[in-house]
Please model this.
Amino acid sequence: MKMEMIKLDIRKAACFLAEGAVEGMEKQTKAAHKALEDGTSKGSDFLGWLHLPSSLTPEFLQDIKTTADTLRRECDTIVVAGIGGSYLGARAVIEALGNSFAWLTNKGENPNILFAGNNIGEDYLAELLAYLKGRRFGVINISKSGTTTETALAFRLLRSLCEEERGKETARRVIVAITDAKKGAARTTADKEGYKSYVIPDNVGGRFSVLTPVGLLPIACAGFDIDLLVKGAADMEKHAAEAPYAENIAEQYAAVRNLLYAGGKKIEVLANFQPKLHFMNEWWKQLYGESEGKELKGIFPAAVDFTTDLHSMGQWLQEGERTIFETVISVEQSEHELRFPHDEENLDGLNFLEGKRIDEVNRMAELGTQIAHVDGGVPNIRIVLPRLDAYYLGQLIYFFELGCGISGNVLGVNPFNQPGVEAYKKNMFALLSKPGYEAESEAIRERLKKEA
Ligand code: PA5
Model:
């Protein structure tokens, strides 16, 4: 199959900017990109993702596939325990490539992939454990720090059930850890129990880790082609390193969104017209939100699934406060062919669509929405994928990662840290009387008493 590069169309956004504004950003954007390449940007000790796709060896990928084969052979269900960057990338790819009803129709050719460790919902966990009871399941425990409460809690429950249901010996074969090389509880347990384990490189932050074992192992377990995913990312890496500014889609994206932001467009709404891309939106939201939202600045990343959300958020998008712009992931070709059916009575008046591909109707919904939103004052950026396959998803992932790194540098923040995430954890631990938090516990209880 012919491989192309995914495309970026900024014309319907550039028309909201002063003439020549995008061209005028060349020097600043190139410098922001170069600062990543030279390792001189803020957070430069977290640039391991930048040349990751091209540095993954066939031997490394084979090792991931061998581990995936073991899990696939020994398990009907695999639970991926992780939160934030430790699960969203894998889920985004698995859902984008999978059959929407795989878990209902699965005839055993692929294990079902479930996700846990990304919430503290008692009902969620209890219902998950009840589902897993009596099943041949395995666990991929993913945590870079190895100490994240949500993931550690789920892992305690899953490990204990796995050992109980499958015996300690089998549990050792079907539990895999992906964590730090040396520190954290996940590492200690893996080493003590002799689990197969992978290291998350020190210089790759969670939200940039989908092309490490964090994303690759679950994706391979689900039966998808990680070689092709990595090839797509590596081709985008090459494109981004070589393309001049006018053709460099990561640089163009970073430049346009910063210009829009400076002009008062404070919210970027990522939209898709394919329900399978829902978790790609979620992954993107984390990538951009955690990377740019700091120092009291940063575009707020929001996401919608169209046409579903045109019936919930459509009114706001069309006529609400004009502080938004829209970025649409557009897929040119669907996998299946289905045509609008004829209905003798034509009670819904839709026979004029008879015989048309459903995809064409969707495409017209997309175009109609673009025209309406642009007319309504919403700048529109389009990212065009020829198909939803592993190769183009690999390109898309790297494009978004690089666009994010460049964009954060243009904005002037450190895109690779997330100091703000600690605030809720500190309060939660104080409220739960974690040892070492005695002073915080007292202070927060005093405060709650006063506020009561
Ligand atoms: O991007 C990030 O760094 C975060 O979202 C982390 O991935 C998330 O907090 C999970 O952390 P850990 O992998 O240490 O459990």
